[in-house]
Amino acid sequence: MTASHPHPTLPSLSSTQLRAAHHVPQPGYGGQSEGTFDTANPPYIRKYLRTYGLTPPRAESYETQKARCLAQLALKQTPIEKYLYLSTIRKNNVHLFYRLVTDHIRELTPLIYTPVVGEACQRWSEIYQQPEGMYLSYEDKGNLAAVIANWPQPNVEITVITDGSRILGLGDLGINGMGIPIGKLSLYTACAGIRPEATLPLTLDLGTSNKAFREDPLYMGSRRDKVSPEEEQEFLDELMAALTERWPGIVIQFEDFKNPFPALERYRHTYTSFNDDIQGTGAVILGGVMNAVKRSGVHPKDQRAVFLGAGSAGVGVAKQIVDYFVREGLTEDEAKACFYLVDSRGLVTADRGDRLADHKIYFARKDNNGQQWKTLDEVIDHVKPTMLIGLSTIGGVFTPEILKKMAAWNEQPIIFPLSNPSSKSECDLEAAIVNTDGRALFASGSPFMPVTFTNSAGDTKIYYGGQGNNMYVFPGIGLGTILSKAVEVTDSMIYASGEALTKCMLPEEIEKGFLYPDITRIREVSVVVAREVIRAAQAAKVDRETAIRDLNDNDLDAYIRVRMYNAHSEVASLEREVGALLSSIGRPFPNGNGYFGNADASDDKNAKL
Ligand SMILES: O=C([O-])CC(=O)C(=O)O
Ligand SMILES: [Mg+2]
């Protein structure tokens, strides 16, 4: 006799696994990929999931899977081919993808995130292969809740939203910006252990000012011009409400909006939200600057910082450092006076004659006696800075001449070219080292290979550039916010995330001149960032998770660690879960032979053994 339905009384697995058992394809992380077709699954898991026979017979070790993936990756000729190959693994075998990324974070992060994600976004509509996130159009206004209801994962904890209007330093890429939410959320999972199915990449199609895309037949977004700021605000109001209605605890990260200030101000106290480009970048540079200022031996009151770029990131970074200088004993006015912001019109002064954008007014200088400085060179000669921070998206603008002057004025000049991707970096590591005789304290937004250099004293050394990229903090900010169930992300939580980076440095990293922890330790770093963010949320009384208020730091770290998704234990935990289910209903314990789901066949097979 053949049972028409295998076991009506079967206790259920997660909805994802049940869905997987019926082969319903799902977009996004998880869904069909929740380990369902993992070639590491032993036969009894495959039988349980009804995937037996759908993958090659051998149950492989992770080492074998990894060897195959790395060999295939090596055969791919271009960074984009590697990017696409890795996306396919993420889609088809999510745990394997994260096992690979955690084990090879240094090598794989540049391929799934900055800088290669920049090229992927530029060519998104050309290279598109599969749905991996949600797209919401301006035409959906009024119905956003209904569209959001289509997202198949029930328990989203965090979303990264972009409207594509300022992707990295590459300008308005419209819906092609989707690579950014996907890339950022991959790092949330890899670096901070947010479960893949708890992440929602979200791209808004609010039109694009990119004429070339609007005329490109392959472009996958609407052809409309960018909506007005008022229309955008109405759309975002509805979106924030709809997201929070479906997932009440959701953390919302804004990313790569051309003008991100209005949304940050409007939502920061009413939704659990933050802006990564203002606050995340601000915090990560804060951490690096704290380390660099200590290393330079120059007290904050004697620092003079020139910022090239007075956009969201520039102002966000400068404000965080003002806070730090105030904590070091300066008054707010003294701290503010250390900063010289430069935009396309020159030094930002109060009497420059143009109408300054609101966010620049705070830093507009009033001590210029009517004089104006129009170019970076003029400003540099006027200020003789100790610190040069680039957020301008103008590749190579920190010229050898400028770098040499910085070296002449400072024993250890602080040089931070932070624009992304690499092509937009204000200088590269080699230029900074060679033109400062190896004395620069250097961090960049995009990664650079270490440089070997012999200085004028004849000492040959390997120089490692720090990567002052917000990937050091946003995963921990998200994790700490989720675990503390914070109702808002306060400035103090953001500050704590940057300061946490200074607490993570190992003696050997300081010895090597690192300004940031080694990237291979990112999961440990994220634990510390998350812990400090939780502490700040508790101090600000915005936390709702009362059970962790009284834990000491060690216990809190342990609490955080056990809640982090670890791809390496997923296969084992699926095995445990299925094993426990099978024994609870009296089925033969896994021996690799039972055809679960077909009682007769299963029994026959077992009987033969
Ligand atoms: O994505 C990155 O690498 C850093 C970032 O937020 C940006 O450049 O907008
Ligand atoms: Mg960004």
Short description:
Residues 278-538 form the Malic enzyme NAD-binding domain. The chain is an alpha/beta fold. The structure holds oxaloacetate ion and magnesium ion (MG).
- How many domains is the backbone divided into? 4
Count of DSSP strands = 14
CATH superfamily of the largest domain: NAD(P)-binding Rossmann-like Domain
Low-confidence stretches: 1-12, 18-33, 589-609
How many DSSP H or I helices?
A: 27
Examine the coordinates and then state which fold CATH places here, giving the name of the CATH topology of the largest domain: Rossmann fold
Task: Report the portion of residues in β strands.
Answer: 5-15%
Structural class: alpha/beta
CATH architecture grouping of the largest domain: 3-Layer(aba) Sandwich
Q: What's the mean pLDDT score?
A: 90
Question: Mind explaining what this structure looks like?
Answer:
- The chain has 609 residues and is an alpha/beta fold.
- The protein folds into four domains: 1-103 and 570-609, Hemocyanin, N-terminal domain, CATH 1.20.1370; 104-271, Rossmann fold (3-Layer(aba) Sandwich), CATH 3.40.50.10380; 279-470, Rossmann fold, CATH 3.40.50; 473-562, no CATH class.
- A seven-stranded mixed sheet has the order 8-7-6-9-10-11-14, with helices on both faces.
- Helix 4 (79-92) crosses helix 5, helix 5 packs across helix 6 and helix 5 (94-103) packs antiparallel against helix 26 (567-584).
- The protein starts with 14 loop residues before the first helix and ends with a helix.
- The structure holds oxaloacetate ion and magnesium ion.
- The site of oxaloacetate ion has 9 residues, from helix 14.
- It comes from Talaromyces pinophilus.
